[in-house]
Every structure is written in structure tokens, then in C-alpha cells.
Amino acid sequence: MNLPTGRQAGSAPSHGRGSTAATQAPAKRRGSPYPYWFVLPAGAIFGIFFLAPTLASFYFALTAWDLFSIRFIGFDNFVQFFREPFLMQGLVNTLLFASITSAAKTVLGLLIAVLLTSGIFAQGLLRSIVFFPVLVSTIGIGLMFAELMHPTEGAINLALAAIGIDGPGWLTNPSLALFSVAMVDIWRGVGLATLIYIAGLSTIAQDYYEAARIDGATRWQQFWRVTVPLVRPATTTVVILSLIGGLRLFDLIWAMTRGGPGFSSDVLASVIYKQYQAGFYGLSTAGNVILFLLIGLIILPLAWWFNRKEVEQ
Amino acid sequence: MKTRLILSTALVSGLAPAAFAQELTILSDSSPDTVATFEALTAAYTAQNPDVSFSIETRPGGSEGDNLVKTRLATGEMADLFIYNSGSLLQALRPDRTLLPIDDIENYGQINEAYLSTVQGADGATYGVPLETAQGGGIYYHKPSYEELGLEIPMTWDQFMANNAAISDQTDKAPIAQSYRDTWTSQLFVLADFYNVLQAVPDFPEKFTANEAKFANTPAAAKGFERLQEAFEAGYFNADFGAATYDDGLRMVATGEAVHYPMLTFAVGAFQQNHPDLMEDVGFFAQPGDDLEANGLTVWMPASLYSPRDTEHPEIVRDFMNFVASPAGCDAITEAIGVTGPYLIEGCELPAEVPGMVADMMPYFDEEGRTAPALEFLSPVKGPSLEQITVEVGSGIRDAASAAALYDQDVEKLARQLGLPGW
């Protein structure tokens, strides 16, 4: 993988330059030319606004807290959180939602990126159109689709009715609601995945395709044997980003269903938010700690696995 | 007293009294009616006390607003005066620590006693005065449809269901409007049934607070969930009940697309605003129970005006609250937003002409024993997930028995956080 990037970046690599780079590298490691206090402004902001609250949340998660008084109650909040009637369904929904949207964004993103780098007609315009939903506010998207998916007056079901199909209650049918939101999330997020893939594809040197063609590879073989392996760093980024996004998704669910009907499209983040709404601040903080650990437990091994594969290549 | 204070200070310092004009801040919710109420009350008060002026800021409603109020109180950033719920929600503000007691205001004796118990803290002190009229929870109905079909106001639940059957058989109107896009509207069949619960089990609130009675094991209390399930199973709801909004519900019953809409009577203001021409097409009755003899209305206490304990103007605040709890205050409110129900201040008069839907609820208040407060004004225990649970029952996802059991589980958290004995 490193090879094509090197070729692209270092046009006409010369032995001389390569060797200076090699001798400079260890020197850099010995001492950065920049003093450490350069990190202070960013470090202070990070520490005060991110690190301190994160650490504080581990304490608040162990308390019964109504903003006016605080009482240390050990792990009761965690016990209570797991007793929430819909927590388990929320957990399953979260995992389901994250894997569906992540998989779909990865596959669709790659396919669209391949299409949009193939020199197709109006390529620039099409790229903008695919990317456009990323720029729109999530709440706006949610409200818009909630209208479009209205069971009797929504544009989707009216269109289906016009061709004689009786459309379902996209957001009001409890077994469908989560998937309807997932579809909208894919529509919203596929543009970013495509963008990352386009960047990844542009780093693959044409030489590989030339060599493959000379060896008689079909288009399909070129895609499967050249494109897919060489675009792997982009895949890693897309999978991890969209998985994290899916696991902590809140705004779209809230704008479209509020976890409903009933509790059927609740995810971890919406369960947590409802505890906060109801004034159980300690309990909702415990929920956030659980979400934090869950994301860590899923993403860290996955990132490690992806990176190891990359090194092996 | 306030005026005297300002005058004497002015004399001592020898400055113009205008320099001592006091400005109080008010945190209102964003509903147009509440803002209009505050504007009218402050204008009337400033007319009497030219040295006091007010600035009103608004906050969102619902639980987002709850959190804003709690945060501002906890951080000492609260405005001098603010509006908030009475009853169980007030207890979460820990009034005995955060709010200004107002037991010593002059008009205290004129305030309705049943109301006062809903704005008192654990210490027995009183913290609020009513900012609105009392409200009822019941069923709005479309009068022309009733006339057309020759229906009578139902006095029992069976009569109500018989009316629904007649509407369903003879028209293509929806017998009952439901609007689950605004989940809170799904709770009415359960909450407004509480008058009937109290008739059957008078000590339910005390036992419920003490963790001795449950919805699931009290047949009268579980009825509310059963009624909702029954209405769903009969197929009486509008086709888009899962996606309709509160405004849709009001429109349906005002235009006759649907004939019934269970709702709180604060909807009078919204009817007035959205459908002024159809006001007289909508009537109101209490949610009927099983007993023909015991028919009455479940009453909601109004939101109240409170002040934080650390306000810089406690004397003016008390004086203003005293004004709100006076006939002059009621008149200012009536003038601003019209009549929505009976006032809770002795001496407050209603104008002779009131909308029909308000007139419909007055008889319940006039007759002894035909009103009872909703559970949230008799017990501090209220579960946060009721609206999701009732959406499930009303959508056929869950049956009544398991809904009642789930709600019992839902209230446990709150009771424990409040530190109630027996939980």
C-alpha cells in the first residue's frame, strides 16, 4: 500500500533525496524542533473542555444527582440502567443500526466512488449531488423525511399509491421504524464515504490497472483484485467513522421517531437522553459511561485488526 | 411597603426617584398565551407601580424547558420570577431549598386550598401562586356530528363506546382522534380516568406514594390502560394516528374529521388561535367511568409563578405575586387570553360570555364532588415513560395489563431519587 502513495507523492524519486530523508528521520525523533509548550494552548482547551468533564463523568455516574443535591450510591446507577425495560432492545437496536448503516455506507460509498472516478458524464456535478446531503442539518433531514414518510399524506406513500401499492407506516410501524431511520442515515452519510473513497481511489497508480489489463484481467477482476485491496486505508476510515457515528447516533432518531413508536426504535443514546430529560442526571451519566465503554470495546479491536492487515500487506 | 422603601432611600440620597427604578426579570415559557399573560400582568402592575419594570425572556417548553429551569436554579442564574408546573414536577426543583416562600402575602387566604397543597414543599411552606385557571382532562367532541347522529353526552364508558360504534357505522369519520407524533397526547385516556379511580379507591394516592398500591394490582387504576386498548382494538382511531400531531388532533375534532379528541382543556387557547370560526362546533365532557352515578372531571392544577430564594428583589416579588393572586390579576389574564376555565382565587369573576367548550366544563366545578385532582397533584410519584407506554397500548404493541405493570416499574426510579419511604 505504501508503494503507490510514494510513487504519486514523490515524483521522480532520486536516490539522493531518499537517503537524506532516511538520515533525517532518526534525528527528528531525538528532538522536535518545536518546544513542548507549543502544545499548551490546544492541550489546555482539550484538558479543560474534554478530559476534565470525561473524568468527572466517571464520578457523577456513581451518584444520585438532581442538580441540587448529590449522593454517592456506588454502582446502583449501572444496575438501574441495565434494569431499564428497554435498555436491552435499545442495545440491540444500536448494534443493528450501526452495522447496517456502516456496511451500507461502505459498500455504496465504494461503488459510487468507482463510478464517479470513471470519467462519467457530468462527473463534477454528480459528485456535488452525492455529497450534498452531508451539508444539510441532520435535524432538518429528519423532519423532512418524517413528513415524506407520513403514512397517509407523505410523498413516499402517495407515490406508491399512484402505482397501486399500499405503502406501510414507515415510522409508525414498530418493526419498520428503525430501518426507515437507517435508510435515511445511509442517504445522509453515503456522500462522506464516497468522498473518502474518491480520495483513496485517486492514490491508486494507473500502472496497476495497466498491468492487470495486459495480463487479461476483466473489469470485475480489476475491481476485485486491484481496487478493493489498494483502497483499504479508505475502507478502514469509512468503516470506523460510520460505525462510531452509528453507535452514538441520536439527532436523526430524535427528529424522526423519538425512539418510538413506544420504545421500538430506541437506541442507547436516546435511552440516555430520556433519563436526562426526566432529571436522572446520575443515571444518564452512567449511561454515557456505558456508551463510551461500548464504543471503545468495539472500535479499538476493530481498528487494531484493520491496521494489522494493512501492515501485513 | 416597597414604594415607601424606595421613597425613603430617594430622600436620604437626594437623588431623583427615577434613578431607583427596579427592573425584574421573568422567565416565561414560549407559548404565546403565557407570554401574553405575563405582558398583561406586568403592564397592569407597572401601571400601579411606575418605579418597577419587567423584562420577559422565553424558554422552550416540555422536558427541555424543565432542564433549563433546573440548571438555572442550581447555578443561581434564575430570573426573579418564572413559570413552572405545580404538583409532582415541582418537587423535583427541591422547592424548600431553592424557592422563595410566599406564605405571608396578603391574599394568601384567597387562594384555593386544594391548589395550595400542590405548590408546597416538603417543609409545608408555599412557593407559588396560580398563573392560569384550573383545567380539566376529558374529551372534546364535534357538536354538529352529535346533532346529526342524535347522540347524547355519554355518562358511562359503555355509552361512550356505543356512541363511537354509531359514528363508525353511520359515517366515515374517525370516532376518536389520536396524535402520537406528539407522544404526550397519548396519555389522556389514562390520566383523565383518575376521577373514576378515586371514586373506586379513595386512598389510592396515599397508598401509591407509600408503595402499597400499584396500577397493575388495582383494577380501577388499570382501567385507564384497558380503555385505551379497547378503543384501539375497536379500530376507532384516525388512519394516521401514529403520525398525527396535537395540532392535527385539534383540527380533526374542530372540523369533524374526527368526532372525539381526549385532551386537556388548555387546548381552548389553541382552538381559539387555529380555528376561531369553529369554536362553537366543539364541546367538552369529562371522561366517563363505569358508574352512572359517579360522573365527574379530573382536574389539572395550573402552572404557577415562582421566585428563586436568592432573588435580589424579594419584596417586589412578593408584592407582584400578591397582585397576581388578586381579582385585578385575574382580570388582566382574562383580558389577555380570554377564559380557559375557573380561577383559583376567591373573588375572581368570569365574564358572562365564555366559549361553549369552557361553559361545558363549568358545571363540574359548580357541583360538589364532581371534580378530583389528577394523580400528579396528589402524589409526587410520576413515571417519566408513561407517554411511551400509552403510545404502545394505543398502537397495539402492548396490552393493558403489561402496560400497567411496566408503568409501576417506571415510577420506582423516581420514588427512589426522591428518597420516599417504602421504596
Automatic annotation (TrEMBL), chain A:
Region feature (Disordered): 1-29
CDD domains: TM_PBP2
Membrane topology of this protein: Multi-pass membrane protein
Segments passing through the bilayer: 34-52, 91-116, 128-146, 186-209, 230-250, 289-307
Entry-linked InterPro entries: ABC_transporter_permease, MetI-like, MetI-like_sf
ABC transmembrane type-1 domain span: 91-302
Subcellular location: Cell membrane
Keyword annotations: Cell membrane, Membrane, Transmembrane, Transmembrane helix, Transport
Entry annotated with the keyword Cell membrane: yes
Pfam families: BPD_transp_1
Family (UniProt): Belongs to the binding-protein-dependent transport system permease family.
Name of the featured protein: Raffinose/stachyose/melibiose transport system permease protein
Automatic annotation (TrEMBL), chain B:
SUPFAM superfamilies, A to Z: Periplasmic binding protein-like II
Gene3D superfamilies xrefs: Periplasmic binding protein-like II (3.40.190.10)
Principal subcellular localisation of the protein: periplasm
InterPro entries listed in its UniProt record: Bact_solute-bd_prot1, SBP
Signal peptide range: 1-21
Keywords (A to Z) from UniProt: Signal
Compartment(s): Periplasm
Record keyword Nucleotide-binding present: no
PANTHER family cross-referenced by the UniProt entry: ARABINOSE-BINDING PROTEIN-RELATED (PTHR43649)
Family: Belongs to the bacterial solute-binding protein 1 family.
Protein name, per record: Raffinose/stachyose/melibiose transport system substrate-binding protein
